[in-house]
Amino acid sequence: MIALADNQTSGLVCAHHHIYSALARGMPAPPRTPEGFMDILELVWWRLDRALDLDIIFHSARLAALEALQNGCTAVIDHHESPDAIEGSLSAIADGFADVGVRVNTAYGITDRHGPEGAAAGLAENDRFLRDGGRGMVGLHAAFTCEDDTIAAAAELAKTHGVGVHVHVAEGAEDTWQQLRGHTADDWLLIHGVHLPDDHGLSGTIVHNARSNMNNSVGYGNPARFSNPVALGTDGIGSDMLDEFRLSFVRAREVDVTATPDLIWGWLEAGWDLFPEARADRVTWNYGPMDPWRLAYTTGVSALDVEVDGELLLENGVPTKVDGHEIRAKAAEAAQKLHQRLEGL
Ligand SMILES: [Zn+2]
User: Fold this and answer.
1) Cα 117 to the center of its chain, rounded Å
2) How far is the CA of 79 from the centre of ligand 1 (A)?
3) 44, 211 contact by CB (below 8 A)
4) Cα of 195 to ligand 1 centre, how many Å?
């Protein structure tokens, strides 16, 4: 491997994203102001996911991939839900990312919110995608929206495919997690863990999403307290992992003034354990040296060149393989359709 220059890093990894939310920006306001975690799910995300179709999902994916590339993020771990367009949805995401050249690992978030048929269809989509050779995991929305049988079936399917389960855990106080006990394994991704006790006994990597947790007012998980590995995600708010690193740092610092940038940089580096190929990708930044202590206090660091698998995909901030303007224009059209469908729900 060629040594990194001062102003270079490997490709950054976003360990938890919702690619379908790329077109949520500009969406019509919910029927009333959400007043808590459950309201945010019911009035915003659980309406948005019902308005998705395969074409909208594909254009969300292309836009999310473009934005990841332009932020030096070359690998994204996605958690997807589209209850009225389940079959083929993971392929639409993989196809959108393949167009731009960014790596993606995706999973369908199985849930019993739409009855046992909905849960079965979600399970089948994970199985279909993995069977076809897709890069993914088995998704579960969260224990509190799943029957025990559904959790067991997801864990079983994941084992069959030799992958982990990607699941939201204890994001809000209402989000019960005890049902996951006895199912988890080291290759699971446990998203948030805000309300988990220190000795929860679950195995897997805890993915911290500082900005999302603050935005949803769910509290601070203080992931430094866990013995599990910790990685960083955005929970659907883009793929600017340097920004997420800086935010995670000040959030940690707010409760413990001895928290170091090295600790949080370690969480960012844990992404490479989840997506090892990204380690060989190359990002050249407009700043150097790329040292955690400097980066914690340097805002606005941008990716200039990005190489994925030896191929130059971003040159001086401009994508080489796709037309960024065309992707944004098509995404704007798809967003308009999505927002119109939302008005009708
Ligand atoms: Zn999430």
Assistant:
1) 26
2) 7
3) no
4) 15
Do residues 211 and 234 touch, judged by C-beta distance below 8 A?
yes
**Could you tell me the distance, in angstroms and rounded to a whole number, from the CA of residue 113 to the centre of ligand 1?**
16
pTM over 0.90: yes
Give 289 Cα–ligand 1 centroid separation in angstroms: 32
Closest CA to 255 of 296, 228, 224: 224
pLDDT digits (tens, 9 = 90+) for 123-148: 999 999 999 999 999 999 999 999 99
How far away, in angstroms, is 166 Cα from ligand 1 center? Answer: 10
- For residue 212, what is the DSSP state? H
pLDDT score of 336: 96
Ligand 1 centroid from CA 141, angstroms: 8
CA 130 to centroid of ligand 1, rounded, Å:
21
State in Å: Cα 39 to ligand 1 middle.
15
- pLDDT tens digits for range 233-271: 999 999 999 999 999 999 999 999 999 999 999 999 999
What class, spelled out in words, does domain 8-343 have in CATH?
A: alpha beta
Task: Look at strands 8-10 and 318-319 and give their pairing.
Answer: unpaired
Q: 333 C-alpha to center of ligand 1: Å?
A: 25
Q: Which residues sit opposite 134 in a β-bridge?
A: none
Q: How far is the CA of 97 from the centre of ligand 1 (A)?
A: 19
User: How far is 100 from 236, CA to CA, in rounded Å?
Assistant: 18
Q: How far does CA 155 lie from the centroid of its chain?
A: 20
The whole-number pLDDT of residue 2 equals 59
Expressed in angstroms and rounded, the spacing between residue 6 Cα and the centre of ligand 1 is 33
pLDDT tens per residue, range 2-11: 579 999 999 9
C-beta separation of 151 from 167 below 8 A: no
Give residue-wise pLDDT tens across range 51-70: 999 999 999 999 999 999 99
